[in-house]
Amino acid sequence: MGRRRLAPQPRSELILVALVVTLTSDKLPEIPPRGVRTGTAATQDEWDAIAKLKSEDWELLVPMTELKLGNPASSHNYFLVNSQHRWTLMRLNIFPDGGVARFRVYGTGQRDWIATDPTDPVDLVAVAFGGVCVGYSNAHFGHPNNMIGKRALRYGGVGPAPSGSTGWETARRPDRPPGNDEKGLLLVPGCEWAVFRLAHPGVITQIEIDTKYFRGNAPDSCKVDGCILTTQEEEDMVKNKWALQTHKWKVLLPTTKLSPNHSHLLDSLTLELQDVITHARLTIFPDGGVSRLRLKGFPSSICLLRPREKPMMRFSVKAGFRANL
Question: What is the pTM of this model?
Answer without folding.
Answer: 0.71
